[in-house]
Design goal:
There is one protein chain. This protein is mainly alpha-helical and about 1100 residues long. The protein has a four-stranded antiparallel β-sheet. A hairpin with a 2-residue loop joins strand 3 and strand 4. It is elongated.
């Protein structure tokens, strides 16, 4: 009565619990697990095992779509809430704060549920308060189940609360079938309507009943406790108890019927078909329940197999009669009455014999009742009678009725005797009957369907049916004939793809001069796809298909789903080609028994080339997809970049699974993906010959409607984007060591100059197009920057002597370029005034001044970025030198162990290490002291220049924003310890410049603001504060002075970190309160708030230092 995985095995005393039902039967005997006996004795006292939750796949099949549906209902607020909450949970988990991560997940779910309440409009959608509240309750319970599922993934909960974990597992299995079927039905009804909602609910109930209500062993029961004696499984080893199983059965049998009655109560008895709906909604789940009892579905009723068999036979016979009669009324005579060629009442008799006899025979065989000679004779006789009756019903000539009878006889003989020849005899005779039926009913109709005559379409259907009938017989042939099964399945898949592709491409029927739209239902594509994939998987598990056939069939069936998203005629075949090119690393080279890759280097190159050719072959589909996404034809750069990006992404499985140890493969992949992204972002101009080898693309480019629809576009030179792409790709190539600039000095020189020239020309052409004389200066500036950065990172023998002069030249070019730019513009304007008589003089001067101001602002931004880059590079190199110094000290301490380990290395390896060490440029501490003492000074000059330029930009762009100093001051963290300019400055004082600059900036700008208000005679302030000029100045200056003690104390503390009296910072806090409450200037308020913050921070840091010191003592 239980499923096979729970059947007792006398020769396997220990049972293994797996993730899927068919594999649960795997056991471990003493010969395979020698520690099993000892383990069972030592762990017999514990009934709980902390193991990963093995039923995640079943739960995910329900809760993941449910979560997607709820997120879609909730909208953006739910998405934002969940995203922030889960990010916090991930951060806490990465910090090993497991409890905090657990509560963060639950908190995010609770907050998202509140967001769902306010963002969704369920009550108004249902037009009923009761239904709206019921829907909200279902959504809350689904959200709760998601939280329970997530909770089971935390290991610490399993260890600390084993009883709660078992209860949560039972809760999931008890509630998921009911909640899942409800929300799934809700989603389907929202998409297709309410007419057949009860049948959708019935289908989902059956699916989820099979997934959850069939007896399953708990994921957290130990293997030793899962064993049993005498063939009886203890009830507490199962996830669900008798109560939950009973509730699931009642839900399966009555919920669809009650739902139908509640939604169609006004039309329940208007016709015979409506009454049949009531019977079908009860008896079809009842038949399913009886079949599920063969896998233990009714274990809670009785455990005696004889009683269960009698229940199945008696109740199944009654239910089968009712279902057959209802299907005759509801389906056969209602939808297929025109194909019944027998007059009444004989037609009712023959249809009943056919359906009831066939169903009874199939049910008896499924229940294992065809086991002896008498039952085999009855089964064969039933098949013969059913075949003959069915042939007569569809109008088969009486003279040829023996042919279907013989076909039924051989089919029954195949099932009873397992005779392959009998099955192929049935296939031949059945094919003849299918051909006769098609020719008799459709051959003479003058109809065009799916873009072809009906005769051609009938040929495809007949061929597909014959292959489908032949494949089961081919699958049971010996292993040497396995290729026939593969050929049959691939041929059937190709025919099915061709038929469905024609249906979606030509969705109309033409008959007798009339044309009508016929839409091939999308769910048929989904059903045929997943059925095909299930058949392929089953045959592959049974070793009836080879890996190459599985690969081809998986790609063909999966490519059919593309027609649901892209409306291109050839998208199915294009998708098939792409999948065939991409999937070999995933499907053809899988071998779990080997740790190394089976793919050879030449195979990797071949697969990468095939992927590239396939993507180029499918460029028309990529073009159409981009056109659909953007609403207009994509540019050439976007198309080529998408092809590069698709090629790189398609090659990821090759590199990740088979060549993860090959650095050159990873570098090439990074460069290809980066090239695609750069082409997509920059969209450089591309010659026509690169992309126009396609009539589809040519037609889209040369459309006469483009201008009328999109209008005219101003042309802008896009060729400089090529230079930026080249510079970025060269940088990536050097970072990934594709270009060995690290080892070859000459190559390093050419690389630095090429990067500088490319960036210089790009910046000049993109932002300074009208100032041609500045192009040379900008190019020289960028070349100097590139040379300095490259040779600072990879120094050569003479670079340490030349780089200070390069930096000096760079600093000298800054004022020259800045002043020259404005002078050139102004001179051009003055010289051109005589020739431009029609332009007013004031307008000309104003335009010139604005152009000069914009260009100079751009130059300031460029030089600020340059000096920032230099400061960062110098800081990075000095930090690396400090780490090298620490490493050298450690090496001296462990010199003896290092010498002993070096002697173990073979001579060839030692030689390679010495050669590599000599080839790599090094900049040691001693060399730094001798030749590179300029580096800290250069870094400090670059940092100060960058900070000063940023202050100028802040004054020009924002008018001197108060908030900007808090973002600009951290630039001073790049200052270095320098004996020439900043004596005594070290790593301990690195925060002092930031703090002192913020305080000094706010104080100086406050004094400047007070002076401007008094000097310019601003008469408005007097009315605001109720006093003359001197009163305003004295009051705000006094309030400003009151903030000085806190700032002075904190700046001294940040410089020295010497502990002072705890009362000093606290006493200065009240001095800042008048500045916050009484001042008229916002900057004084900011200084007062900073003073309070500084005092509190100083007190807390000093207190923490004191506590740490006491702990150390």
């Amino acid at each position: 009565m239980f499923p096979p995985e729970l059947h007792p095995r006398t020769y396997h005393p220990y049972m293994s619990i797996s993730t899927s039902a068919p594999s649960l039967s795997t056991g471990y005997g003493p010969e395979r697990n020698p520690n099993a006996v000892n383990g069972s004795r030592s762990l017999r006292s514990s009934r709980f095992s902390s193991t990963p939750f093995i039923h995640n796949a079943r739960i995910a099949a329900v809760l993941v779509p449910v979560a997607g549906f709820l997120i879609d209902l909730g909208g953006t607020p739910v998405v934002v809430t969940l995203t922030l909450g889960l990010m916090i949970a991930y951060i806490l988990d990465s910090l090993s704060l497991k409890t905090g991560s657990f509560f963060a997940v639950w908190f995010s779910l609770i907050v998202s549920q509140f967001a769902f309440f306010f963002s969704s409009s369920l009550i108004s959608s249902f037009n009923s308060v009761a239904l709206g509240l019921l829907a909200l309750s279902v959504c809350c319970l689904a959200n709760f189940l998601i939280g329970v599922w997530v909770s089971l993934q935390f290991k610490w909960i399993q260890i600390e609360y084993p009883t709660i974990v078992l209860a949560l597992e039972r809760l999931l299995f008890a509630c998921c079938p009911i909640i899942g079927s409800t929300i799934f039905t809700w989603a389907v009804v929202s998409a297709v309507g309410m007419v057949n909602a009860a049948y959708y609910l019935m289908v989902f109930n059956c699916i989820f009943y099979w997934l959850f209500s069939i007896p399953r062993l708990s994921s957290f029961k130990m293997k030793q406790d899962a064993s049993y004696h005498g063939g009886n499984i203890p009830d507490d080893n199962l996830i669900l108890g008798q109560l939950e199983s009973c509730v699931h059965t009642l839900n399966l049998l009555f919920f669809p019927l009650l739902f139908h009655i509640g939604s169609h109560y006004s039309v329940m008895f208007v016709s015979g078909a409506a009454i049949c709906d009531l019977f079908l909604l009860f008896f079809v789940p009842f038949l399913f329940q009886l079949y599920a009892s063969t896998r233990g579905g009714l274990w809670w009723v009785t455990k005696h197999e004889n009683q269960l068999q009698s229940i199945r036979v008696v109740n199944g016979a009654i239910a089968l009669v009712v279902v057959v009669i209802c299907l005759e009324v509801r389906v056969v005579f209602h939808s297929f009455g025109r194909y019944i060629q027998v007059p009444p009442p004989l037609n009712y008799l023959l249809v009943t014999i056919t359906m009831l006899g066939g169903s009874a025979a199939a049910g008896a065989y499924a229940l294992g009742m065809v086991s002896d000679a008498v039952s085999s004779i009855g089964f064969t006789a039933s098949a013969v009678v059913v075949s003959a009756a069915g042939a007569i019903v569809v109008g088969f000539p009486v003279l040829y009725v023996p042919f279907p009878s013989v076909a039924g006889f051989y089919l029954a003989r195949f099932f009873t005797k397992k005779s392959v020849s009998s099955y192929f005899t049935f296939v031949v005779l059945g094919s003849l009957m299918v051909i006769w039926f098609v020719m008799h009913n459709y051959w003479d109709l003058n109809i065009w369907m799916a873009g072809m005559p009906l005769k051609s379409f009938c040929k495809l259907i007949v061929g597909s049916v014959i292959l489908a009938m032949a494949v089961p017989g081919l699958a049971i042939l010996p292993a040497q004939f396995r290729f026939l099964t593969e050929i049959g399945l691939i041929g059937h898949a190709l025919l099915l793809c061709h038929i469905e592709n024609r249906f979606f491409t030509y969705s109309s029927v033409y008959y007798y001069g009339l044309e009508d739209d016929v839409m091939y239902p999308s769910y048929m594509v989904v059903i045929t796809t997943f059925v095909g994939l299930a058949v392929v998987r089953r045959l592959s598990v049974d070793n009836r298909l080879g890996s190459k056939a599985v690969w081809v069939l998986t790609c063909l069936y999966s490519s059919k789903l593309a027609v649901l998203f892209v409306t291109s005629k050839g998208v199915l075949w294009v998708s098939a080609v792409l999948l065939l090119a991409i999937s070999p690393p995933l499907l053809l080279y899988r071998d779990k028994s080997r740790t190394v890759s089976k793919m050879k280097p030449w195979q990797g190159y071949a697969h990468a080339a095939v992927v590239a050719l396939s993507v180029w072959f499918c460029r028309e589909t990529v073009f159409e997809a981009l056109q659909w996404w953007h609403g207009r034809p994509p540019s050439d750069g976007l198309l080529l970049g998408s092809c590069f990006l698709l090629t790189g992404l398609a090659c990821i499985p090759i590199v990740a699974l088979h060549f993860s140890h090959v650095m050159s493969a990873k570098r090439a992949l990074v460069l290809v993906v980066a090239t695609g992204l750069l082409f997509i972002l920059m969209q450089p101009p591309i010659p026509l010959s690169w992309t126009y080898h396609s009539d589809v693309i040519k037609a889209a480019r040369q459309s006469a409607d483009d201008i009328s629809i999109y209008g005219f576009f101003a042309s802008k030179p896009t060729w400089p984007s090529w230079l930026l792409i080249v510079a970025i790709l060269l940088t990536l190539a050097s970072v990934t060591s594709t270009i060995p600039i690290k080892y070859v000095v000459e190559l390093r020189i050419f690389y630095a100059i090429a990067i500088g020239i490319s960036l210089g020309i790009y910046i000049s052409a993109e932002y300074f197009l009208q100032a041609a004389i500045l192009h040379a200066l900008i190019i020289v500036t960028m070349v100097c920057t590139s040379v300095f950065v490259v040779f600072t990172h990879f120094p050569s023998a003479s670079s340490t002597k030349l780089l200070p002069w390069v930096f000096a030249l760079l600093v000298a070019l800054f004022p020259v370029t800045y002043l020259l730019e404005g002078q050139v513009r102004i001179n051009k304007s003055i010289l051109g005034d005589n020739s431009l008589q029609d332009m007013a003089e004031e307008d000309s001067k104003l335009a010139t001044l604005l152009a000069v101001e914009g260009a100079r602002t751009s130059l300031l931004g460029l030089y600020a970025a340059i000096f920032m880059l230099i400061a960062l590079e110098v800081k990075f190199e000095l930090a690396s030198l400090m780490r090298e110094k620490v490493a050298d000290r450690g090496a001296v301490r462990h010199s003896h162990s290092g010498q002993s380990s070096s002697t173990i290395l073979p001579p060839r390896l030692r030689f390679m290490q010495q050669r590599k060490a000599s080839a790599v440029p090094s900049f040691t501490i001693k060399r730094m002291a001798a030749e590179g003492a300029w580096m800290p000074a250069v870094g400090n000059v670059a940092t100060i220049l960058c900070f000063a330029i940023c202050l100028l930009l802040n004054a020009n762009l924002t008018g001197g924003s108060n908030r900007a100093i808090f973002f600009l001051a951290p630039i001073l963290l790049l200052l270095n310890q320098d004996s020439d300019f900043v004596a005594g400055f070290g790593d301990k004082q690195r925060y002092f410049p930031v703090v002192v600059v913020i305080s000094a900036y706010l104080v100086l700008t406050t004094l400047l603001g007070i002076w401007e208000n008094i000097w310019h005679g601003n008469t408005g302030w007097g009315l605001d504060v109720g006093g003359p000029d001197w009163f305003f100045a004295v009051k705000n200056l006094a309030l400003l002075i009151l903030t000085f003690p806190s700032h002075i104390l904190f700046n001294r503390f940040v410089w020295s970190y010497t502990k002072q009296a705890d009362s000093m910072p606290l006493l200065t806090i009240p001095l800042n309160l008048p500045s916050v409450l009484m001042t008229d200037i916002i900057k004084v308020k900011i200084l007062g708030l900073l003073g309070v913050i500084y005092s509190l921070a100083q007190y807390l840091i000093s207190r923490q230092q004191y506590i740490s010191g006491m702990k150390y003592i």
